[in-house]
Write a structure and sequence with these properties.
Largest sheet: 8 strands, mixed
Mean pLDDT: 89
Number of helices: 12
Oligomer: single chain
Low-confidence stretches: 1-16
Number of strands: 38
Distance between the termini: 60 Å
């Protein structure tokens, strides 16, 4: 039976629409600024039930759907701050929530995350590991799950144990979904970074990185006793990453982290013997591997302007590729699958949809519409998204994603107000997809360009590594050259341009205002890095001066001592006097990725230089601005600022 319940959800959503001067429907800002109406969809192990979070009248509701019971509201998640759900068993849904807290005896606050089990039969919730013994009191990541035990349906959850900093260690607990109680399965040292189990609870791999000893190691308990099967000394970061477990449980699959090739993978058996393995083909860049609940690898997700997939089971792969042929021209994301792979849940963008969930039956090859992610945005209000390619000043080919103003045609794509929106990361990339902020500005008549500057992933290792040491350099040139390409093509009005970025994109926005002030009439930086050397100080304070994360930043940005002059010369905070455009800074007070003081210090520097600057520090909010109301308020602030600066054509 087809799982189609779109009308039932849509009837709950009452969103009025404005009409633009061109007669095109303009959904209200809430349709974009708040998180998707339907999000975090998950499928039960049998595939007979679906669960998702429904955003309704300012509340987040856990919903389920099945053929037997239809669409059913379960529990209000708003106060739980639930931002992710997972159908763990047929009877239990796991909700991951978070809240800001402090613990007596420990300095400062932290984001406490937890996994909460919701019982579909009783309607009761239990926080997993709440009653586990020996838990370290001040830790944030209690919501992580690394496996599921098939016989008991208990969750395997890693956590710190110990009562003080002196005796801290790591352990994995069996967490009972009915009671929340946890019992220790295995322990490891504090520097354990990964756990891998079989469905019957056997520890297949434990990954350690000891920063103080500069030693990386892999242990296993296959063979009834714990054994070290690999060790490498004298390393400042992990040389490998365990991606998952082979489908026949004969070994582990590792990726090589020296970046000589994006396709460098190894198989390691449980005696430590390694050999190269080919995952997928040798042409396309691999974005991720497809894993099940126990981190068993079933296939490959390829990167690029649109994702694609390959499964190791030839029958599943053939039926999946046949379905992709039916969805040609759309961007397809794999969301979830049931235990026997008879059903696969997809999220698609294209053909005038702001995002739609679709169910693939691999036994029949049929596709069934499930629901729209953003029903308040009708097809005619979705801006066309395309990719372009341009040549940077040194000849490097750069791709970019362009979202065209809604209602715009090839004949009217001329002298448009334009927003340059560099992505975060910077090791990520933008695809032909629905981006909520880009689509909002497109609905208001703006052209939005998202350049995949060098240093981005998805286009080969050489292209990604070309960004090392180029913050504020060639990476920034690629952003500037993308805008110039649109100006030269006649699409962009050079007198009405703004740069808007988040995280690394926020740094790029500030760098654009500081180093190319003639290009932009306004600058918006969300959670930006403003001082590169300060970033290293922050990371050392957070993780310790020997932590391997600092090695990652040294590779990407440079050494704060050896490259001091270059890092100071590419830190926007040191060039406040060069800004000519007004600046808007927005930062979450509880941001644990980029400290909010990067924005407040940037504000002070700009004010000392007597520049036009405004800063908004958002309380109780982190790096990603997950609260819908905070995100909506932020979007309104940004739009008002941008529209005031470049919304009116210049004479």
């Amino acid at each position: 039976m087809r799982l189609v319940f779109v009308l039932a959800v849509m009837a709950l959503v009452g969103l009025c629409r404005q009409v633009s001067a061109e007669g095109v429907a303009q959904p209200p800002i809430e349709a974009y600024g708040e998180r998707a109406v339907v999000r975090s969809m998950s499928m039960s192990p049998s595939g007979d039930q679906l669960a998702f979070i429904l955003r309704l009248e300012g509340r987040d509701i856990l919903m389920t759907h099945s053929v037997e019971e239809g669409l059913k509201p379960r529990i209000d998640l708003t106060d739980l701050q639930g931002n992710w759900i997972w159908f763990a068993t047929e009877d239990h849904i796991v909700i991951r929530g978070y809240r800001r807290m402090n613990v007596w005896g420990y300095r400062g606050e932290f984001d406490f995350t937890a996994a909460i089990s919701y019982n579909l039969e009783t309607g009761k919730t239990k926080q997993l590991l709440r009653k586990a013994e020996e838990l370290y009191p001040a830790q944030s990541g209690l919501g992580r799950i690394v496996g599921r035990l098939d016989e008991t349906n208990e969750m395997l959850m890693p956590a710190y144990i110990g009562r003080t900093d002196r005796d801290i260690a790591k352990a994995v607990f069996r967490a009972d979904l009915r009671t929340g109680r946890g019992h220790t399965v295995v322990t490891g040292p504090e520097h354990t970074i990964g756990w891998f189990f079989s469905p019957d609870g056997m520890l297949l791999g434990r990954e350690n990185m000891d920063d103080d000893e500069s030693t990386y190691a892999i242990h296993t308990m296959v063979g009834d006793k714990r054994r070290k099967i690999f060790e490498q000394k004298g390393v400042d970061r992990p040389p490998f990453e365990i991606l998952g477990v082979k489908s026949d449980y004969s070994g582990l699959v590792l990726s090589v982290k020296d970046y000589d090739s994006e396709h460098a993978f190894l198989e390691m058996d449980f005696d430590g013997h390694m050999q190269p393995v080919s995952l997928g083909d040798s042409i396309r860049s691999i974005a991720d591997v497809i894993r099940d609940n126990n981190q068993i690898i079933h296939g490959i997700e390829y990167a690029g302007l649109q994702p694609s997939y390959q499964f190791f089971d030839p029958d599943i792969d053939a039926r999946f590729q046949a379905a992709m042929a039916q969805l040609k021209g759309t961007t397809v994301h794999l969301v979830d699958f049931n235990d026997d792979w008879s059903k696969i849940l997809l999220h698609i963008f294209g053909a005038g949809t702001a995002g739609q969930y679709v169910l693939l039956n691999t036994e029949t090859g049929s596709l069934s519409a499930v629901t729209q992610a953003r029903p308040g945005i009708p097809p005619e209000a979705v801006g066309d998204v395309s990719s372009i390619e341009y040549e940077a000043r040194d000849g490097q080919k750069i791709s970019a994603i362009v979202t065209w103003p809604v209602g715009n045609t090839m004949q009217t794509r001329h002298q448009l107000p334009t927003i340059v929106m560099p992505h975060g990361g910077p090791r990520s990339h933008d695809q032909v997809d629905f981006y909520w902020m880009a689509q909002f500005f497109a609905s208001r008549g703006y052209l939005v360009v998202q350049p995949n500057f060098r240093g981005s992933t998805g286009f080969g290792a050489e292209f990604m590594l070309a960004g090392n040491g180029e913050w504020g350099g060639k990476m920034q040139d690629d952003v500037s050259d993308g805008l110039d390409a649109l100006v030269q093509a006649g699409y962009t009005d050079p007198r009405r341009t703004c740069i808007v970025g988040w995280s690394y994109g926020g740094y790029a926005a500030l760098a654009g205002g500081a180093f190319t002030p003639d290009l932009y009439q306004c600058v918006v930086a969300i959670a930006p890095v403003s001082d590169l050397r300060q970033l290293f100080t922050d990371e050392a304070r957070e993780h310790g001066r020997n932590h391997y994360i600092l090695s990652y930043w040294r590779e990407m940005i440079g050494d704060p001592k050896a490259d001091k002059a270059r890092m100071e010369a590419t830190s926007p905070i040191n060039f406040a006097n060069q800004f000519t455009a007004p600046v808007l800074l927005i930062h979450g007070k509880d941001d644990d990725v980029v400290d909010y003081r990067h924005s407040t210090r940037m504000e002070k520097a700009l004010k000392r230089a007597e520049k036009d600057v405004r800063v908004e520090i958002v309380k109780d909010e982190g790096h990603s601005m997950l609260d819908s109301q905070n995100r909506l308020s932020m979007l309104q602030t940004i739009f008002d600022f941008v529209d005031d600066e470049i919304g009116t054509p210049t004479d």
